[in-house]
Every structure is written in C-alpha cells, then in structure tokens.
Amino acid sequence: MAKLQITQSVGIGGVNKPNDIKAVQAALNKLLGLIPPTNKLVEDGKLGSKPENSKTVAAIKAFQKKVVGMVRPDGKIDANGKSHRKINDKLSALASAAVVPISGIMKAKLVKAIEQQEGRVPHMYLCTEGKVTVGVGHMMKDVKAAQKVPFVLSDSGKAASAQDIEDEFKAIKVRPFGKSEPHFKFKPFTKLIVSESLMDEQIDKHIKAFEKELKIVYGATEFSAYPNEVKLALFDMIFNLGMTTLKTGFPKFNNHIKNQDFKKAALECNRPQVSVTRNDYVRGLLRNAK
Description:
Elements: E1 10-11, H1 18-30, H2 55-68, E2 76-77, H3 82-98, H4 104-118, E3 121-126, E4 132-135, E5 138-139, H5 143-147, E6 152-153, H6 162-173, E7 192-193, H7 196-218, H8 220-225, H9 228-241, H10 243-249, H11 251-258, H12 262-266, H13 276-287
Antiparallel strand pairs: 1-2, 3-4, 4-5, 6-7
Helix pairs in contact: 2-3, 4-9, 7-9, 9-10, 9-13
C-alpha cells in the first residue's frame, strides 16, 4: 500500500464505511513502527458498537498524537483531512525507503556487527557447520566455488592456480571443526589468502543480497519500517541460516516478527549451530527494539 484511499470519515463520529475502516486499519498496520507500542490491528472493517473503545481508534489517536502532533487527538480521520494526508506522506516515505538499499550509519553498524560475529579471515577455514569459508563468512560449497575466488599465494602475492585452490580446499575440508573452533587454528594449513579489498566487496555483496531476501520474506515496506535493532538481528539470522531456512525453519519467530512482537520473537530465535554469545546478541537486539 503506497496510498490510503477512503471515501468518507473513519473513527469517532465518522461515517465508518467498512471498506474505509479496513483501508485505515491496513495503512496503520504499515506504520506501526511510528506508533509504538500499538499492536497489529485486525483488518476486519469493524470498530464495534462503541468506536471510542476500539483498538483501531486507539491507533488513530496514537498516530495523531505522535506523528500529526495533535495535542488532543479526536480519533477520526476525515477524507483528505490533516491526518489522512499525513498517513499518505508516511506511506509514501516508507515505500521509497523500501526500494533504497541500507546505507550510511546503519550500514556501518551492520558491517561492524557482521564482522564481529563472522570474523574477517583472509585464509580458508571451517565455519561452525563444517563448510569451507573465507573472508567475512563467505562460504564455498565446493572446489568450483572456491576457484571463483581470486586467491593469491601469501608468500609471493601471485595469483593462485586452480590446482592450488583445489588442494587447499580439500586440505581444509578434512580438518576437525567445532562451534568454538578459532579461525587462526586453520592458518598453519593454508598458503592462500584473499585481499582486504576483496573482503570489502564480499561483505557489500552479501548485505545487498540478504537485504533483498529479507524484503522477500517480511515484505519490503514492512522490513524498512522495522527498528534498526530488528534489522541487525534479522541480518545476523539470514547471514547464518540462509533465506530458505530462515523462512521455513522458524515459523513462530517469523510470526512474531511480522506481528512486530519482537520480545516474543526473541524467545524463538535460538540457533543450535551457533555460539551462545551469538544467540544472546540477537536475543538482546530483539528485546531492546523500540
């Protein structure tokens, strides 16, 4: 929804046509991030026998107070009135944000968080799932995938051959690994590295790809409206799990995220394959989301 369209007034003293009410409920659900702690509204086109006691009117008042700046919210949205126009302003801004990639301060926070959780390792190593990885969590599923990465010989800086990469991939693949196995333990068994600039390129590509996937899972405008803490948590989840597992393996978690009940989502985000510290990091982000 990029625009709220109503034919007549909705709320206390309004005409309250069911389709208009439903449209207002849908619009406010898109803008929940602006009116905490309002919960998601049921989009049923109803206000009940006493509109002044309805959750929809309470959400209208919250929007009027927090966003429109009304000292005494009247709980009514008039067609093309001040509240109606402000809703459309915010919906338009949200729709624009949904197609604009993360940048600036938020991206810097994300890069720092990902590097802190994934590490920044120039040589091959095994992640907690036993997959050969390099850089900032860049997994390589097989030899062919590894050979697409421009490795160089660490002692000379010369480009590694396809055979060099294959030999090293196979040597690392058979090493023991665990949840807390430090990256540096794999270094003695390597002679190939990637450049700092390549690691920067990798993480930038990952962020763009995962942002696109998160908008598929949760909706572009919805994801864009989430608090930054939630975005950081979701990036960590999808970076570690991949889109398919995040989408299908955590149904309760995703339900809570979509309902913007982030504290309940924090109870359903545990990933057995990662460290306690990393799970606590995501839980903390969700619990503190505002």
